[in-house]
Design a protein that fits this description.
With 436 residues, the chain is α/β, with parallel strands linked by helices. It has helices at 26-29, 32-46, 57-60, 70-82, 107-121, 134-143, 154-178, 201-210, 213-219, 225-233, 238-245, 282-293, 312-329, 373-385, 411-424, and strands at residues 5-9, 16-17, 22-23, 50-53, 61-63, 66-67, 85-91, 127-131, 183-189, 192-195, 253-258, 264-267, 273-275, 297-301, 334-339, 345-346, 359-360, 434-435. Helix 2 packs parallel to helix 4 (70-82), helix 6 (134-143) packs antiparallel against helix 7 (154-178) and helix 12 (282-293) packs parallel to helix 13.
């Protein structure tokens, strides 16, 4: 029996800022390169069986067909040894310097080659998020001017979006050639825009359609006439739009959605937005997304700062869990929950726009790997609920295999690298390169 997927993640964002001159590498800032073995052990101690995790693309993917797998070999061998199921995140808000940014039309096909190379090297890996938060990545890079190409136009947003989603689709195709039973858990931000006054209803309704564009394209869901005109007015061609309609990979997917207190917005008449705080909450907004796509759901990200009293994150954990149960009791097939991330993060208070080195107390553990109150609460929650919520029932069967159930396929390579990982110690460098 496969039970409900309680998960956490290793924060691995790596966008560029300052016109591409500065790489913000959260794995480095959060000291995962130094403490990766300890981090995996902490995941096991929590009772978490699933880990949102992915290689640092800018250090691994050195050029077309050119990869340095040294760090990935060590970390994935250890995940296999510990029988932790990785939900492999292949692109998290950035690309290697040689790609440039998300305006590059060559990115989708090149990324598919990278995804195929990964899947062939680690054939025991079954769960993937090829591109993380496609909507947010395109928005922050092409429209808000915060990351990567740092553009501030609708055309910049649409161009980034079509390249990012095409990369995700082509990567799914490529992975399926190596692992036909692969399951893709989209991690996408679930948003809602509230009208501040009657004059703001139009702008809010427009943005409430834009929020769906990444998943509409990814799942081949026909967009509204207004969104079709918006896409074509800002650089998408009819042929590009029909590429997305003609792909039929939805049956391999789980609708992973992320929810934070910042995901709801007040919209003014001029289209400007500001944070509204939680108004509807996760269960209401998830229902909107589920009704649109009709896929199994997984809550793939949430967190909250610990707060001065030390209990704010714990209160948020219980609130989000109550929302997960509400979704389940309303009849939606929800298969997992994630507190993101395992450790505190750095500089997310500025959305990674500033390289300040400021620690954000959002993790289950602090950066010294001491458990926080929310970590203790999450461990207890898992202990109490794990055996109560089977993921498979008479109405839903998600065919996931644990690493220990993968048979001999690919394990020769894994076995060889487990010993290497064990002798390498906690510190590991990513210098040098290896041809695939």
């Amino acid at each position: 029996m496969i039970y409900f997927m309680f998960a956490t993640g290793i924060e691995n964002s790596y966008p560029t800022i300052q016109n591409g001159t500065v790489r913000v590498d959260e794995m480095e800032k959060c000291r995962h390169y130094e403490f990766w073995q300890k981090d995996f052990q902490l995941v096991k101690e929590l009772g978490v069986g699933y880990l949102r995790y992915g290689p640092p693309i800018h250090r691994v993917w050195l050029g077309p067909g050119h990869y340095d797998w040294s760090f990935v070999d060590q970390t994935y061998a250890e995940l296999h040894r510990l029988n932790l199921v990785p939900i492999t995140d292949l692109c998290h808000f950035g690309v290697p310097d040689w790609i440039g940014n998300f305006q590059n039309p060559d990115f989708p096909a090149l990324f598919a080659d990278y995804a195929r190379a990964f899947a062939e090297r680690y054939p025991w890996v079954q769960l993937y998020t090829p591109v993380n938060e496609m909507y947010i990545c395109a928005l922050f890079s092409g429209k808000y001017g915060w990351w990567n190409e740092q553009l501030t136009t609708d055309q910049g947003f649409v161009t980034a979006l079509k390249h990012i989603v095409k990369a995700n689709v082509l990567a799914m195709r490529a992975i399926l050639t190596a692992r036909p039973d692969a399951i893709f858990i989209q991690s996408e931000s679930s948003e809602y825009f509230h009208a501040e006054n009657p004059a703001a209803i139009g702008p809010a309704e427009f943005m409430n359609e834009v929020r769906f564009l990444s998943l509409d394209l990814n799942y081949g869901h026909r967009v509204s006439s207004e969104m079709y005109e918006y896409l074509l007015d800002n650089g998408m061609t009819r042929d590009e739009y029909h590429f997305f309609l003609d792909n039929h990979l939805k049956q391999h997917c789980v609708l992973g959605n992320d929810y934070y207190v910042t995901n709801e917005h007040l919209t003014s008449a001029d289209g400007n937005t500001r944070a509204s705080g939680e108004i509807y909450g996760y269960s209401v907004i998830t229902t909107q997304y589920y009704n649109r796509y009709r896929l199994p759901v997984m809550h793939t990200e949430t967190n909250f700062t610990q707060g001065n009293g030390g209990d704010e994150a714990v209160a948020w954990l219980h609130k989000e869990w109550a929302n997960v149960l509400r979704v389940r009791n309303d009849g939606m097939p929800i298969v997992g929950f994630t507190w993101y991330s395992l450790t505190d993060q750095v500089d997310w208070d500025s959305a990674l726009r500033e390289n300040n080195g400021r620690v954000n107390a959002l993790g289950l553990y602090d950066l010294e790997r001491n458990i926080r109150p929310v970590g203790t609460a999450y461990k207890r929650l898992i202990e109490e609920w794990q055996g109560v919520l089977p993921m498979q029932s008479v109405v839903l069967s998600l065919p996931i295999s644990l690493p220990s159930e993968q048979g001999e396929t690919g394990t020769d390579h894994v076995a060889a690298t487990v010993q290497q990982a064990g002798s390498a110690g906690q510190a590991s460098t990513l210098s040098g390169s290896k041809e695939d």
